[in-house]
Amino acid sequence: MVAPLWDATADSNVICGSKTKMAIQKEIFNMGVPWESGYGYSQAVKVKDTIYVSGQVDHDENGKILYPGDMEAQMRQAYVNVERCLAHFGASMDNVVDEILFVVDMDSAMKARGRLKTEVFGQSILPAATIVQIQRLALPGFMVEIRIIARV
After folding, report:
1. Structure pTM?
2. What mean pLDDT, rounded, does the chain reach?
3. Which of 29, 84, 99, 101 would be a feasible disulfide site paired with 88, CB 3.0-4.6 Å?
4. Residue-range definition of the domain harbouring residue 86
């Protein structure tokens, strides 16, 4: 009998050649939007005390874009979706240690982020942050996508 190269079961042994490694335990959160299964990913994954939040965009609970053409409103809604992911694990924006913003218009994104920082993070210590301008996001109409790492 040939041993499997990979076993995706959490807390099981993974056999790779002659080495045995322990699989990590993951807890996931999904919102049920169409692209989760279509593209194939989780909205957020928690491993031990770290929460990895996939890039969040402007959408409601059904996946509908709410604010086409409005960078600040899209960014605000993306942060609402980040908060929803974090809340599933009992965390909040106070737990965020790193964020990456992918934007299609750097000038409007810098202005929007500057205006939203206190609304989003309050008076807490701001996280490490990176902002990158890209040509386009996954779906036409998306202007900003925010990826987060938080610790609990």
Report:
1. 0.85
2. 89
3. 29
4. 25-151
